[in-house]
Design a protein that fits this description.
Strand order of the largest sheet: 1-2
Helix content: 55-70%
Shape: globular
Radius of gyration: 14 Å
Largest sheet: 2 strands, antiparallel
Order of helices and strands: EEHHH
Number of strands: 2
Length: 75
């Protein structure tokens, strides 16, 4: 899988796809507007499927962790 990295000197430290200046937030925005991998690839043809899959996995893991935190606070 492609790496998701953070560097405080690039994009203010936001998580991004390694080797690019594309933040995970950009990928998340596509999802929130109902778009999928095909639309991401259309607009960012230099991204590989592996890079997009890594971003999607990162988003899913983050959402799961946030859900677990919320559930632990309400228990």
């Amino acid at each position: 899988m492609a790496a998701i990295v953070c560097n405080k000197n690039i994009l203010g430290g936001k998580p991004r796809i390694e080797g690019t200046r594309i933040s995970i937030d950009v990928i998340g925005d596509y999802l929130s507007f109902g778009y999928g991998v095909n639309e991401i690839r259309r607009d960012y043809p230099h991204l590989t499927k592996d890079q997009i899959d890594s971003a999607l996995s990162y988003i899913a893991d983050k959402a799961l962790k946030e859900k677990e935190i919320l559930e632990s606070k309400t228990s």
